[in-house]
TrEMBL record:
Organism listed in the record: Raoultibacter timonensis
InterPro entries: AmpC-like, Beta-lactam-related, Beta-lactam/transpept-like, Beta-lactam_class-C_AS
Domain Beta-lactamase-related: 38-308
Superkingdom to which the source organism belongs: Bacteria
Enzyme Commission identifier(s): 3.5.2.6
Keyword Hydrolase among record annotations: yes
EC top class, as a word: hydrolase
Protein name listed in UniProt: Beta-lactamase
Pfam families on file: Beta-lactamase
Keywords: Antibiotic resistance, Hydrolase
Length: 328
């Protein structure tokens, strides 16, 4: 794999507090590199980053494990596991896991102005806009969404859908989702620097120019936590990528199977799959962080990219990571 230094320098330009970490694996060889302002190489970063929606992949792989164990089925509708009234149209586990439930994301802000004010604020701290929604709100929102017509079967990325999926999975396992995913991460996957709680880890802080925005936190009853609560470091993320690359557990390989075909990509359980390639990936974003994880079995490669200093209207991180895993 070839890491283009000019791409790194361009990305890190005018970001005085950036810590960009790129971790790679190719045919048995691991490499972790970190870069600071201007793309200058620094010591490999061992602290954890917010990985945002890559949390959905951890959820989906735990789901695959539970499917193997018979705790639930892909064609179960969510009311089989969540106490919901009869007579409404509820999505299946498969639809939620592949973003084809038709569930749209409810507004997080009271107005578009409030949303823009949040995005472009320059405050020293930036609260987590997803954390003010509880499990009671989630049940009410499921009922409201299930009373409306939905375009089921069409790919429509949904944080809300994965929040419902996480709640249903927790109910099927007889625990809170937070406890289920924590046990899975620590005991099944053995990832010591990965957690749903940023306060448990030594964290890289997020920055917007000179402003230290700290890190998002998630309450135990946060409805949206399954969609984006996880934090991890490059070493753990690369280890997880390699578990998937080499199929170390049968349920991981099961999660990679194509379930839905969209115009631009195919979709597994949580994973995005390139149509013209065997690259399997997912990205994630929070207030100041961008994360990307990908692997290619035919190339025997895995790539992880972690950044703490993003531009809100641009996503160059995905391009850097995808070009790296596909490089000659």
């Amino acid at each position: 794999m070839h890491l283009d230094e000019s791409d790194i320098q361009k990305y890190c330009k005018n970001k005085p507090h950036v810590v960009l970490t790129v971790a790679t694996h190719e045919k048995g060889v691991d490499d972790i590199r970190s870069f600071g302002s201007g793309g200058v190489p620094v010591a490999p970063e061992s602290r954890s980053y917010e990985v945002g929606s890559i949390s959905k992949v951890f959820l989906a792989t735990l789901l695959a494990k539970c499917l193997e164990e018979g705790l639930l089925r892909l064609d179960d509708t969510v009311d089989r596991h969540i106490d919901l009234p009869a007579g409404l149209s509820y999505p299946t586990i498969l639809q939620l896991a592949t973003h084809t439930s038709g569930y749209a994301d409810p507004d997080l802000f009271d107005s578009k102005l409030d949303a823009l004010s949040y995005v472009f604020s320059s405050g020293k701290k930036q609260s987590n806009p997803f954390d003010g929604f509880t499990s009671d709100w989630l049940i009410d929102s499921i009922l409201e969404a299930s009373r409306k017509p939905r375009k089921e079967g069409k790919f429509q990325y949904s944080n809300f859908g994965y929040s419902v999926l996480g709640h249903a999975l927790g109910q099927a396992m007889g625990k809170r989702y937070f406890d289920c995913i924590t046990t899975y991460i620590k005991e099944d996957l053995g990832l010591a620097a990965t957690s749903c709680n940023s306060n448990e880890l030594c964290m890289v802080h997020g920055f917007k120019k000179e402003a230290d925005l700290g890190n998002w936190t998630w309450s135990d009853d946060s409805a949206y936590a399954p969609a984006g609560c996880i934090c991890s470091n490059a070493s753990d993320m690369l280890a997880f990528a390699k578990m998937n690359l080499y199929g170390e557990r049968s349920h991981l390989a099961y999660s990679h199977q194509k379930r839905v075909s969209d115009k631009h990509l195919d979709v597994g359980l949580g994973w995005m799959i390139e149509k013209d390639d065997d690259t399997v990936w997912h990205n994630g974003r929070t207030g100041s962080f961008h994360a990307f994880l990908a692997f290619s079995k035919k190339r025997e490669r895995a790539v992880v990219l972690l950044s703490n200093c993003i531009k809100y209207l641009a996503w160059p991180e995905d391009g850097i990571a995808l070009s790296l895993i596909k490089s000659e």
